[in-house]
């Protein structure tokens, strides 16, 4: 069954022009097959996309390198206007893109709509940033000469993205790369390539010149990516995905000293102090845990709740989680869609079984759902011991693990007891405490009395083994630029 025939059945999907299936290299669509894309709600095959060989990977480098001088020389205003048109097209076709994301990823339509809006904003933000690339002109401390710093596009960039945000993880990289003047090769996750190809179609329509954005899919990312990174024309790797794969890619990139930006895994603590507004903390907890059914790098993985508010928080979260409607992402009533694969469900099951075996109590959910599709129900566990595997590993699913604490110092110690350092959440009515705790948390981002932190205008990224570099904000564009210093005497 082809994507088009499936989508034709779907009343909300109106735009056949977005049904692209094929590598997009040098402005050409190269059809092929080899990688089935399935609907995680049913297991049905939605489409097949091509399986790139090393040769196809190198053809993409060739196309990106050929387009690089022209794109670099394109005035920033023009690059900006193309990105802005791409934003507008994404916004106009938002519903189609949301349905596509929901079909291949499984996330609830409301989450998919949120993702499209978030993803498009990276194009708008970087359309604005393209015309404000910073430089410096200073007097040397000796007073004898001048220091001039310019920023140049770093060069051909390889962008590798995960399946959990098929649109936003791509735009968060393409936006700054194109704004900086770089040409790119995007390798989306093979679970969710259809959104990436649909976005490339919109890019074409927006006026992105051939070769500036190239998209390929492969079942053998190891050798294809290694060959691309070994080509001396490739100067940047921007990766979003798991920490273990990130470590491998850092080692691969080291061979040709390629600049790396790494957005890796998380294990976010969510701290609730006695003085927190309970209802606000519960609202925030639901967003921080259940956006994308828990399949988010920023997802609250460990809830640390102080003694005085603990029981009310457990009761409130249990009530809200148990009330969520589980179903196919494209069903407008769904609040919690399926997991991406059966393997993901098995991992969640193993983590819950381990925690329960060590003394955790199941308040709601707690076992995979039977029948078709990769469904796991919203689950709340309390009394989770600190040595449970889910305290160390990303759950990446709709399971809220609650731990109790008494003292602020204890909460900080527990929160930091992880190799990860991406996101953290703090709920308290005391501003001084919020900032004090925020400073003590070893993470790249801290949400204070908020359940959502992602914002294209803010620097997104992690400390410790959650990554290197930042995406978004005013500094995100510099990840795709090389500073050039001119020593000036005048
Ligand atoms: P993953 O690491 O398995 O895959 C990510 C990408 O890398 C995919 O495109 C995949 O095909 C590719 N890949 C896998 N093995 C490779 C190899 N040997 N060589 C080259 N490429 C390879 O991650 P995933 O399961 O797709 O995504 C989930 C992970 O991503 C979670 O750990 C999550 O926390 C993380 N994530 C992080 C952020 C962030 O901004 N920090 C955002 C979203 C997801």
UniProtKB/TrEMBL annotation:
Entries under Gene3D superfamilies matching the protein: Aldehyde Dehydrogenase, Chain A, domain 1, Aldehyde Dehydrogenase, Chain A, domain 2
GO biological process: gamma-aminobutyric acid catabolic process
Lineage top rank: taxon: Bacteria
Domain named Aldehyde dehydrogenase: residues: 35-484
Active site residues of this protein: 263
Assigned keywords, A-Z: Oxidoreductase
Pfam families tied to this protein: Aldedh (PF00171)
Key word Lipid biosynthesis present: no
GO molecular function: succinate-semialdehyde dehydrogenase (NAD+) activity
Similarity comment text for this entry: Belongs to the aldehyde dehydrogenase family.
Xref: PANTHER family: SUCCINATE-SEMIALDEHYDE DEHYDROGENASE, MITOCHONDRIAL
Protein name: NAD-dependent succinate-semialdehyde dehydrogenase
